[in-house]
Amino acid sequence: MAGSGGWVLGVDSGGSGVRVSLARADGTARSAPVSSKRPAVVAERGIDADSLLDEVLPAARELMRAAGAEQLTAAAVGAAGMATLGDDLRAVLPGALREAFGVRALALAADAVTAYAGALGMRPGVVVAGGTGMIALGTGLDGSGWRRADGWGHLLGDAGGGAWIGRAGLDSALRAHDGRPGGSAALLERAEALFGPVAELPGQLYPRPDRPAVLASFAPAVARCAAADPVAADILRQAARHILETAAAVRPATGTGSCRTALTGGLFKMGEPLLGPLRELAPEVFPEAEFVPADGDPLLGALRIAGALASGTLSLPEDPALLHVPMHVHPHSQM
Predict the structure, then answer these.
(1) How far is Cα 39 from Cα 5, in angstroms, rounded to an integer?
(2) Are strands 74-79 and 105-110 parallel, antiparallel or unpaired?
(3) What does the pLDDT read at residue 1?
(4) Distance (Å, whole) CA 128 – CA 112
C-alpha cells in the first residue's frame, strides 16, 4: 500500500466545466484547482471519456509539475450524470489514468456522492445538493448502502430546486398576465425585465436544450421578491418543504436521535428567503435534522475519496451507479 503522503487526483465534472486538483492523500497539502469552462461532451455512450480526458490530462500534468509529483497513487472522478451516462467513463478511465499517471486506485462517483464527501467526509448523515436540480443522499455507513431521493430532472422531479422555483415563479407571472388567481404582478414585472414580453416566453423557452438552466435563472428573482410579495414567499416556502421532505426520505434507517445534515450547492446561496422557511419548517418535516455547515465542495469530496482510497480507509458505500471503484490498492494488487 502506498504511503499516506502520496499525491492523489480529484476531478469534478459538470455542466459548467471541469475542475481538477491534487492533494496529499493524508490531507496535509492541496493544490489550487485548474478549471476549464468546457464541459465533457455527451455522446452516444453517455459522457465521452476522451473529451473529459482532454481537459483532465493537461491540467493534472501541470499540477504535478508544480507539486514535483512523478506519479499519482489514486484518483476520484465525480461527474454529473455518472449514474446513467457513465458507461464510457467506466470503460476508458481506469486504463487511461493508470497509463498516464501510474494511478493504482480509482473511484468513479456521481456528483451527488462527491458533494456528500465534500460536505461530510466519511461520516454518516444526509447531504442535500441543490442547484438547478435537487437531490439528497444519505448513509449510515452501516452496510445498508446509499439512500437517494429525487434528482429526477426538471420534468419529473427536482422538487424545490432552482428550476422548480423558477418555473413556479414564471407560472405566477403568467397568471398575473392572464388575470388568473395566484398571479404576482411583482414576478410579472421581473419576468418581463429578464425575458421580454411574457407572451413570447414559450417560444423562447421550449426549443432550448438548456431549459432547466433558463428556468433556474429566474429563481433569484423569486427570492428578491419574497420579502414584499406573498406569492413569491409562498413559492419559497413550498420549495423549503420539498427540500426537507427529500432530505428526510434519505435519513439513515438505523439509529435514533439527530441526523447530521448539510445543505450544499448554489441554490442555498440565495440566503434567508429560502433558509428562513427551511428553519421554520424543519421541526415539522424533518425533526431529526441537525444542520451542520458543509466542509467543502464536490472537488474537495473527490480529493477526500481519492485520499481514502490511497490509504485503504474508504468507508462510503460502493454502488454500481453512485460510487464505482474499479481499481483498489491492496496487498495482492497486480496493478
Answers:
(1) 31
(2) parallel
(3) 33
(4) 8
Give whole-number Cα distances, 237 to 165, 264, 278, in Å: 10, 18, 8
The sign of the torsion formed by the CA atoms of 39, 44, 49, 50 equals negative
Residue 270 contacts residue 277 (beta carbons within 8 Å): no
- The CA–CA distances, whole Å, from 98 to 9, 75, 104 equal 12, 10, 6
The residues, ordered by sequence, that sit 6+ positions from 203 with a Cβ below 8 Å of its Cβ are none
Q: What cell does 319 get?
A: 454502488
The Cα angle at residue 13 between residues 7 and 18, in degrees rounded to 5: 80
Cα 170–Cα 171–Cα 175 angle in degrees, nearest 5: 115
| H or E element at residue 248 | helix 230-249
Question: Which residues of the chain register pLDDT less than 70?
Answer: 1-5, 254-256, 329-335
Nearest to 170 by CA among 108, 128, 220, 135: 220
For 249, the grid coordinates are 426520505
Backbone torsions φ then ψ of 303, nearest 5 degrees: -65, -40
CA–CA separation, 263 and 8 (whole Å): 26
Rounded CA separation 187/92 (Å): 47
Inter-residue contact 131 to 297 (CB < 8 Å):
no
CA dist 97 → 6, 64, 78, 89, 301 (Å): 16, 14, 14, 11, 19
Joined together, the cell numbers standing for residue 1 give: 500500500
Overall pTM surpassing 0.70 (yes/no): yes
Cβ-contact 236, 172 below 8 angstroms: no
**Which residue reads 456521481 in cell numbers?**
110
